[in-house]
Design a protein that fits this description.
This protein has 408 residues and is an alpha/beta fold. The protein has 16 helices and 13 strands. It has a 6-stranded parallel sheet, with helices on both faces. The longest helix is centred in the last third of the chain and has 26 residues.
Length: 408
């Protein structure tokens, strides 16, 4: 009788955890993209979400201080689904570190996806009073209270106490970390993330999100898409567009909206407000290039990936993970250097052939590095590493758990 080769082990079963924000943003998009990617590659996937929308700030604060609500429900979900890996995204306030510990105690390996700086920073962006700020690091979150980064004393004190008090348990409950850019990983390691425990996996788009070709050469305006907040640098985009004589369209809303509308008066600037996906796609099809002038160390915004996938060249600032996203032609510009931004915008606006070439390059660059196919191997490797850590820990500590085949 012939010997039949052993069948390869089934892909890990993955339970995605996410605490949805009050306003939908990039992390919700990331969870959806990863779920789609995993299912297409044969993983059994479930998503367990809680939401901050509709709950009071008092309840959110209480959940932060407790380290999350109802961790037993997470453990039950892990056992019922027979999850090999729990892949968590935002956990605050309703999941918390207790959810990660419960998942691990139930036998799953835990991967924590860090999309921002909430490990130490109460507001997640590492930015206040017009400048980058990483005064809070490790368990020292007192600066966030001193500066009232959450707006008031009570909420700032709650976040400072919770982030410091639960930090050790969060690190202990996580087998592997993920960040979306090398710059973000480096910054988080300076803030106390264990060195060597983190993989870099950028955001990714499904094949259907990519345009067949770039139409940037015939574009009629520059485009900014994103939240209207001071750290996004939209005021710089308005000033540079005015100085360069470039029509600018701004898609998004947020707390900086009233100030930006005042700044835009008298310029060829249109503030469109929040757009649904179809309307935003239409705006990209009519654009000549896109802008990402962020002042904070932005890790990996989907707005940049989607612009490149639409065939748009993107001018980005030199902060955070933005320089890692664009091809060489879109070299980053110094934050708040109005002269440089004006010259770059005018250069592309007045030379349709140059921006057409840059648009083709951006599209090719996005297809190479920011597709499901491109990031899937890195994600599989992260799961394998997390499972190996979980297996070693369970063996060392004699902890009963699921028996998982770990790739060599």
């Amino acid at each position: 009788m012939g010997v039949h080769p052993a069948e390869p082990p089934a892909p890990p079963r993955v339970l995605l955890l996410h605490n949805r924000y009050r306003a939908t943003g990039g992390e919700e998009r990331s969870v959806a993209e990863i779920a789609t990617l995993l299912i297409a590659r044969g993983h059994a996937v479930e998503v367990l979400e809680r939401s901050s929308a509709g709950i009071s700030r008092a309840r959110a604060g209480a959940a932060m201080l407790r380290g999350g609500e109802d961790p037993d429900a997470v453990a039950t979900a892990v056992r019922a689904f027979r999850a090999d890996v729990v892949h968590a995204h935002n956990i605050h306030p309703r999941l918390g570190p207790r959810a990660l510990a419960a998942a691990r105690d139930a036998g799953a390996a835990v991967v924590l996806h860090l999309h921002n700086f909430r490990l130490s920073c109460a507001i997640g962006v590492g930015y206040r009073d017009g400048a980058v700020c990483f005064a809070c690091r490790g368990r020292n979150t007192r600066p966030g209270l001193r500066h009232r980064c959450r707006g008031g004393v009570a909420e700032s004190a709650t976040y400072a106490a919770a982030l410091a008090g639960h930090r050790a348990s969060l690190l202990a409950a996580t087998d592997r970390f993920v960040t979306v850019s090398a710059a973000t990983r480096a910054r988080l390691e300076t803030l106390g993330l264990p060195a060597g425990a983190t993989d870099v996996i950028p955001g990714a788009l499904a094949t259907g999100a990519f345009a067949p070709d770039s139409a940037a050469g015939s574009g009629r305006y520059a485009l900014f898409a994103g939240r209207l907040a001071e750290e996004k640098g939209v005021d710089l985009a308005i000033a540079a567009a005015r100085a360069a004589g470039v029509p600018l369209r701004i898609a998004g809303d947020g707390p900086d909206g009233p100030r930006l509308r005042a700044l835009a008066m008298g310029a060829d600037v249109t503030i469109l407000g929040h757009l649904d996906a179809a309307a935003l796609d239409a705006e990209r099809r009519g654009a000549a290039f896109a802008l990402a002038p962020s002042r904070w160390e932005e890790p990996c915004p989907f707005a940049v990936l989607e612009a490149m996938a639409a065939g748009l060249p993107v001018l980005v600032s030199d902060r955070g993970g933005l320089p890692e996203l664009v091809p060489e032609r879109g070299q980053p510009l110094a934050v708040d250097d109005l002269t440089a931004w004006t010259a770059a915008m005018r250069g592309w606006w007045e030379d349709p052939s140059a921006r057409a070439a840059a648009g083709k390059e951006a599209l090719a660059h996005a297809r190479t590095g920011f597709t499901h196919e491109a990031v899937a191997p890195a994600l599989a490797a992260t799961y394998a590493r997390a499972l190996a850590v979980r297996h070693r820990t369970a063996t060392r500590d004699g902890v009963p758990g699921q028996r998982v085949e770990v790739p060599a």
